[in-house]
Design brief:
With 152 residues, the protein is an alpha+beta fold. The protein folds into two domains: 63 residues; 66 residues, Histidine-containing Protein, Chain: A (2-Layer Sandwich). Helix content is 53%, strand content 14%. Strand 1 and strand 2 form a beta hairpin. The longest helix has 42 residues. The radius of gyration is 33 Å and the shape is rod-shaped.
Length: 152
Amino acid sequence: MRKLIAAAGIGAGLVYFFDPDGGVRRRAEARDRLRAFFHRRGRALEGLAGSARSKAFGLVQKAKHRREQPKGELDDVTLAQKVESTIFRDLDATKGQINVNAEDGVVVLRGQVERPELIGELEERSRRVQGVTGVENLLHVAGTEAPMHQAH
């Protein structure tokens, strides 16, 4: 019985694809659809392979460069930008309320923070940035008076 059903299915497929009136069109359509299907699947696999390759490359680079290499002296603008990007990474402090400047390697932090513990944390993070020779912390909690210029 299964052989009879399989033979009937094969026969129907042959009639469908080799019909003198529409068989040429049906064969071309089936060929185009199969080509498109495999093309899409191939592109998807290429994307997955590329993503895995780039992740692996990133992990290798991270392992190679675990510590920041010493660099020459940074100008004040570059140092301030480096400190900003470092201290606000992984921190919920509002970046727009804090001003970071650098003057001859000394970083000056000005502005308001929401919590008192952020004052010390931002200062400590600033001190750890390569190229910083000192930190002048003029941060204050919102609602309190700002500290005056301090000696570093």
